[in-house]
Amino acid sequence: MHKIMKLWQNKFLKNFLILFLSFFILEIEFRLISNLTLFSFSLLRITLGISIISLILGFIISKLPNLAAKIINCLLIFIVTIYGIAELGFKNFLGVYASVSTSSQAGAVLSYTKDFIMSFKWFYYLLLIPLVILLVYYIFIDKKVTFSLPKKIRSKKTYLYAFLYIFILSFLTASFICTLNFDFMQNKTQVETSLALFKKPDNPSLAINDFGFISFALLDIKEYFLPGEATSVSVSYDPNLIPAEKVEEKEYTPHLTLDNTIWKDLISTETNKNYNTLNKYFISNDYTETNNYTGLFEGKNLIVIMAESGSNLMLNEELYPNIYKLYSEGWSWKNYYSPRNTCSTGNNEMSGLISLYSIYNNCTANVYRKNTYFESIFNLFNEKGYYTNSMHNNYDEYYYRTTIHKNMGSSKFYKVQDMDIYYGTTYGDWASDVDLMEFYLKTLDERDSTIPFMSWLTTVTAHQPYSNSSTFNDKYLAEMPSEYSKDVRRYMSKLKTVDEAIGTLIDGLEARDLLQDTVIVLYADHYPYALSNKNLSAAYGYEINIDNNADQVPFIIYNPSLTNKIYEEYTSYIDITPTLANLFNLNYDSRLYMGHDILSDSLSDLVIFADGSWKNEYGFYNASTNSINYYTSKVYTGEELLGINELVSLKLDMSSLAIKNNYFNYLKNKFDSYSTSES
Prior knowledge:
The protein is an alpha/beta fold. The protein has two domains: 2-225, no CATH class; 241-678, Alkaline Phosphatase, subunit A (3-Layer(aba) Sandwich). Helix content is 48%, strand content 9%. It has helices spanning 2-8, 11-33, 41-61, 66-94, 106-111, 113-118, 129-141, 151-181, 194-199, 204-225, 260-269, 273-283, 321-329, 344-354, 364-367, 377-383, 401-408, 433-446, 471-475, 486-511, 533-540, 576-583, 638-660, 663-678; strands spanning 301-307, 331-337, 387-392, 413-414, 453-458, 518-524, 555-558, 565-572, 607-608, 614-616, 619-622, 627-630. It has an eight-stranded mixed sheet. The chain has a four-stranded antiparallel sheet with strand order 9-10-11-12, with no helix packed on it. The termini are far apart.
């Protein structure tokens, strides 16, 4: 016992054990709270990782005076604890973990700090236990005396200790590397390998599961300053299997517009590896054909409304009669999802416009705002001879829509300053969606009435916060169901203004004799995640914290000529552009989209979430835990599950690669150059 006490008084060993035990307990607590698998090779990898970190930090701290060492230890564990609590909060609040790459949105997050912190669950603070134990130990138990060897012995042992330290550190590092490479230590169906995540941790959910939140933080910082090279993606390409060109004589013809001969020639001459990977992927990508719905709305006007923080609570005839009119008289999709991601509003708007998945760990719409997309929904309607515009009744505080929408092809984007309507300058004092619709109707009066129009409107009134008193939070508060929590009732009060805005639009179109010739599409950017799962579940009448149910929101297509129908297919914003392109009989190549026409029978329906999780009629696959919850008697074999995960991973990887390389700008320029040379 005396020898053990002497060892404990060794400064290096003591600091190492304090850090290691604290980090290990934090990691175990984090996994238990996050419902991540505890007993797996990931835990071994995490243990090795924090051992290496603790060895390095313990060695450095042991060189400091005792008081300084204690302060540094407490400070380190405090920082790690706060970071862990924040990550749990981000995952609960936004549906994704935070990353250094999302720092551009720090201002937006600070704006709703109160709502963010209020969303924390009490047991997140259990992560404070190691810090509390350490403080109690230092204050009441720790002895001031430390043991050191006599000078003569110490001098003789210096080289031996140095050798042992280097040997142990090298052994742990080698063991850690082995866990990245040994086949039996990998999840066979995981969408990204552990080695790929270590080199480039661009999927925080998977990286935290594989390495723990502490090691992920270090990998994330490394990635920000020294980006790793993405794992090379192998794309199968057989020129003989490329889909045939459109044949007019067939009853149903493929939606293919790009000349395969030119594309194949481009592949044979392109020297840029990334561009050619994308060329091979998109030329071989799945495509859809015309169907019974093709051209159903040809020649009609289109208004797409992305409703800020929309939810299934909107589908209430008594409270929201105008939205319910669209729902009860049009088409709607029961299993429509708007999966959250790092910047759900801007990124989900972008995905709706171009049918590409945003990049997990950044505000893709902002970071790549200079990209252009000839296949965007704006440009498809521009080519058809429509007048296109877009508007949002807020300014470019969070998303640079003035630049983004212009580069997407919108002929004119209106921000709130262009509308001459009231808007606040402080968070929570949002503009009125009724004012937005009244301004929009004025633009219809000023247009050339001989030209059909296509518009994309993004609302703002229903935006959080819901925890404070404000004009729209309180305007209809008394009319909301008293059994709901006050924050839910305030949110529902805001939805009343959204409903009035829809009513203003419908009445305005009818008064201008435009309603019959106009299609209205309504979807939500994301559910109101500022509300607690408990309070929102009580209002919904079902548990939203299971299988990403929270991300299920309305998607409606309305025109007076339609017969009401509710579709069962699983779909998301990724399918909006190709679906509308078919309904309006636009000239488009369906291979250029990650989504597909959801009215087509040729492809299976699948909702893909930011971390590689997915959902369909058979079940929900959780990529973070590598587990699936089945809804039917259908059970996937390991091979089938791997096949779906590889498809999901490929779609996410190719979307990211295309966006990062401004691929569609490249593709258009290449095809234009071929056309010019031929003429």
